[in-house]
Design brief:
Elements lengths: L1 H13 L4 H13 L2 H8 L3 H15 L4 E4 L2 E4 L1 H25 L7 E7 L1 H18 L3 E7 L13 E5 L8 E8 L1 E6 L17 E4 L6 H10 L5 E5 L2 H9 L5 E4 H4 L5 E3 L9 E7 L7 H11 L2 H8 L1
Length: 307
């Protein structure tokens, strides 16, 4: 009897999945492939295959159907995926609440922003922040992708948006204004005004996610006049400084550059708000509060946006 009981207990143990197993299933399902799931999990394709095979062997069911177009969860896989997502949400919520219990303005704060905002607007305020809050370590993720604050990919985001996501709280820092800019002549004088079709232009590449700028360029600049396209605003800015042609750029970046001249009025259609965003579970954490307060009241940011 004791032997049978022990065997039953071992059987229960051997059919139990770990939290990592659920995360493997979620990574594969959301990526649609072993390779994509492996990149998300930070492991190799063979490792993901071994782990999936072990999960299916443990449960005795097939978790994914393998198609040439990718991996699709079976009914059993859908149940595992739902449980994985529920556990993921619970752990993320718990982490946010625990982080929120911190009462001292010290420790790590992860901030995400775009490359253009960092170079043109935030580099100097960040330097000042480090002097005023030496006990806070700031990790800045520079990306033009939108980081998910609810999944703790970052604690704070400073990014342009028409309006913030409803699950976030934030503060509007001001309006980002854009205009067309040209390199000044060698003598430092402004170039003569010319019509758009008489200028060489630098534009956004198709891969660049900036629908408003794409639309403005298509309405106002002849296709033949745009001989160079790049997939980041920072790249467009560098090309304009080199004298390649006219480019639509943020005023906070190009307006303070002595090598560039604003050619025409600001483009009202491209105005966009700049937001300082945080998840509500984190906003009362001391180090998060200190960081939010600093950037919300930065005179350098205010002046750069209003100039």
């Amino acid at each position: 009897m004791e032997s049978k009981s022990l065997q039953a207990e071992l059987s229960i143990v051997n059919t139990s999945l770990s939290w990592d197993d659920y995360r493997v299933v979620q990574a594969i399902a959301e990526a649609g492939s072993l390779a994509g799931g492996g990149r998300h999990a930070g492991v190799s394709h063979p490792t993901m295959l071994r782990r999936l095979n072990a999960i299916e062997a443990t449960l005795g069911v097939r978790v994914f159907e393998r198609f040439r177009t990718g991996y699709v969860p079976t009914p059993a896989g859908e149940e595992l995926l739902a449980a994985a997502r529920a556990m993921s949400e619970l752990t993320e919520e718990t982490e946010r609440k625990l982080v929120g219990q911190d009462l001292r303005p010290a420790g790590l704060v992860r901030l995400t922003t775009t490359d253009t905002l960092l170079v043109g607007l935030l580099a100097r305020p960040i330097a000042r922040f480090r002097k005023e809050h030496p006990e806070i370590t700031l990790h800045v993720s520079v990306s033009n992708n939108v980081f998910d604050l609810s999944r703790r990919e970052a604690d704070i985001a400073i990014r342009p948006a028409a309006s913030p996501e409803p699950h976030l709280v934030g503060r509007r820092l001001g309006v980002i204004r854009l205009a067309a800019y040209l390199r000044r002549s060698r003598g430092g004088s402004d170039p003569e005004p010319r019509a758009a079709d008489a200028l060489a232009w630098i534009g956004p590449a198709p891969a660049m996610r900036y629908e408003e700028l794409h639309a403005w360029m298509s309405r106002n600049v002849p296709e033949a006049a745009c001989g160079l396209r790049l997939d980041t605003l920072l790249g467009i800015y560098a090309a304009a400084r080199a004298g390649t042609g006219a480019a639509v750029l943020p005023a906070y970046l190009a307006g303070t550059d002595g090598d560039l001249h604003r050619a025409g009025e600001y483009i009202d259609d491209l105005d966009v708000d700049l937001w300082l965003l945080v998840h509500p579970d984190l906003r009362r954490t001391a180090r998060i509060m200190a960081t939010l307060d600093f950037f919300a009241h930065s005179e350098e940011i205010r002046q750069a946006l209003s100039s």
